[in-house]
Amino acid sequence: MDISRPRGTRDFLFAEMRNRKEVEGVLRRTFETYGYHEIKTPIFEELKLFTVKSGEEVVNQIYHFTDKGGRELALRPELTAPVARLYMNEMQKKPKPIKMYYFGSCFRYERPQAGRFRQFWQFGCELIGGRSPLAEAEVISLASESLHELGLDGFEVHIGHLGILRGILGREEIPSELQDRIMGVIDKGDVEELEALLGEVEVSGESRELLMKLIGTQGGPEVLDDVEEYLGGYSESLEALEEFRELVETLHYFGVDDYHVNLGIARGLDYYTGIVFEIYVPELGAQKQICGGGTYNLVETFGGERVESTGFAFGFDRLMNALGMDEENMRMVDVFVIPIQDSTVPEAIRITQELRAAGVSADLEVSGRKLRKALSHADNLGARFAVLTGEREIQDGKVTVKDMERNSQETLPRDEMVDKIKGRC
RNA sequence: GCCGGGGUGGGGUAGGCGGUUAUCCUUCGGGACUGUGGAUCCCGCGACUCGGGUUCAAAUCUCGGCCCCGGCCCCA
User: Which of A89, A174, A194, A287 has its CA 20 to 30 A from that of A100?
Assistant: First the structure.
């Protein structure tokens, strides 16, 4: 019988786990300095939580099942919807705005490819019930600062505003559904398909030309002047532009000045309502997008009261990829204790336990190998010290401590040993 | 789903135009260096995805299944 790891999943060994925990720790600390606190939702939810949000077609990409009580459940394919559900169930009546963050794994039944896994992790946050350019700027600042804290170079923040684009479509009286479709194509960046669709939908030449111009507009905040020129009499879009300007100004106060205005960012999701942003690491090619976010309204879709949220999520695995951390030989244990003779095993056990109680990670030679082999193993473990318990030393109330890095050795009084070692670890 | 590549000792690989003892590195176990290692040497454990076919003979050719990886479609 051959049992192996399911397709699209990964095993993480010691060194990689250590790296992931480290990144996780930096993100937690940074989010918490912005006043966010962690929430956790179940790994499986009701299936309809996801179909209501994204449509029936996603069922084919969801790991779903009927439980023993006949309920249709699903392994969560993303975390935005569970967070909205949690808010609606538990926090709807609480004072606003509410800041929360989350970290967890998601599951999708899709064809794996480079960087595309069936189990993947997201680290994200939501600021619920306080939409304003100031709030939005702070969310973007948090995303940017997190990456700076991690020491990531070469990332680009791209910011768009759906209100500008929807203001044009609204003036053409394009129905909601068609607008959503158009947004999807814009997000895809397929210019030809967009032209074809706008023609099919019979958007006026003026608006069509304007849309094409806008989605190709990219650059620093100064391009907003160009955008204003393009917009002319589209009053709804101008209002959104004003909002965008306010965001830009506020970002400056947060110290965020390195970003791209990019109206081609549409996110392709119908529940987004205003600011949208994505973060890229260009050198990663097809997997360059490590973060997506913006302002949206989802709770109403699930039957709650209308409330807008601004948030984002890092693709944790993409982020790890971008950081490219080395998996150096890691120290499995600080101290390796070796009984030189069988008679010294009890003492070796006592020493090991004392070290552990003092917060020093320690392991004991349990295989009965000779000293030579045991020392070799200590090296394999990357142990900083080896402690040798021999009959001679024990008789004298001492213990031999070998520094594995310096290849030096000393004999210490038994009762001073723990403190000495602890002080050097 | 379509296209392409692949599946060889615990890990990584060579072999692949058929030849009958399957290569190399590494991991692991034992031994030699006489209570002390990171080197070296010796011995050992351990393998050709499953099924069928062709053949005196198949890891090597062929048919089918299963599995994995990459590209496309899709990507909440």
Answer: A287
Contact A317, A117 (CB under 8 A): yes
- Would the Cβ of A378 be found within 7 angstroms of any atom in strand B? yes
Name the pairing type of β-strands A309-315 and A335-339: unpaired
For A12-154+280-321, CATH number out of 3.30.360.10, 3.20.20.70, 3.30.930.10, 3.90.850.10 equals: 3.30.930.10
CATH number among 1.25.40.20, 3.40.50.800, 3.40.50.620, 3.50.50.60, domain A333-421: 3.40.50.800
Chain A residues 269-298, Cβ below 7 A from strand B: 269, 286, 292
Chain segment A330-358, per-residue pLDDT in tens: 788 899 999 988 888 899 999 999 999 99
For A105-164, the pLDDT digits (tens) are 999 999 888 888 999 999 999 999 988 999 999 999 999 999 999 999 999 999 999 999
Is there contact between A8 and strand B, defined as CB under 7 Å from any strand atom? Answer: yes
CA distances to A102, A247, A372, A418 from A344, in Å: 50, 70, 16, 18
